[in-house]
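We close this part of the discussion by returning to an individual protein. In the encoding step, the backbone of a single protein was reduced to a row of integers, each denoting a local shape. The sequence in question and its structure tokens are set out directly beneath this paragraph.
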Amino acid sequence: MSHPKPPFPKQAQPAPGLTGRMQPIPDHGESSYRGSDKLAGKRALITGADSGIGRAVALAYAREGADVLLSYLDEHEDAEHARRLVEAAGRKAVLCPGDIQHAAHCRRVVQQAVDELGGIDILVNNAAHQASFKDVAEISDEEWELTFRVNIHAMFYLTKAAVPHMRPGSAIINTASINADKPNPTLLAYATTKGAIQNFTAGLAQLLADKGIRVNAVAPGPIWTPLIPSTLPDQAVENFGKQVPMRRPGQPAELATTYVMLADPLSSYVSGATIAVTGGKPFL
């Protein structure tokens, strides 16, 4: 299968970005993903589910038989598109807009999943904030704190609220990054939170083992999502993905099978792991 390679056209847009303004449009698996009931009857809560990796995971989970709550900030157009993909697969889709940097909203998200889906079997902590800076002096206190609230504090709030509703056999999957091990200096705050996410995952897996809840992380390399043209400079967007051995960015669809595998009950001995999806670039 052929995948787009750089150079890409200039396409700056305001954060957090919209899928429809991207060139090329990301592939979420709309035409390629085929389900086989691996997640039949499961209930999944996915943050950042309107676009990018979150949308691809929502689509794959639905085609595997899961109902999905799609948590997102305020990208209503993208969220409606993701909802239609889930419903086209014959599964229930619940939209939940709002800002997960706030603990109270995280608790509302979990309660809505319990109320409208009947419970939570899979929690995918995927939403993230990033911004690029060439000098540490350019990073405001507010920017640093926002990145931590969205990227790592929200994972704690959501997990703490969700665990009491999760039965043995449930799964928590956190989106880390290759930046956890090989930090991009211009993404200092973002990369630091991704290192924290990997540590959070490893500790949480041990803490929840007695409850029968598995916890794992996915560490993507460069993936073509709205976060890229809305947060990186033009030159970085033009050459995005060129630095890895495959010489291109990954498409969101290319990560979906990893999230399915980690949610699959047959992966019952996989916990505390970080799965790297990096286009050939070593993670450790």
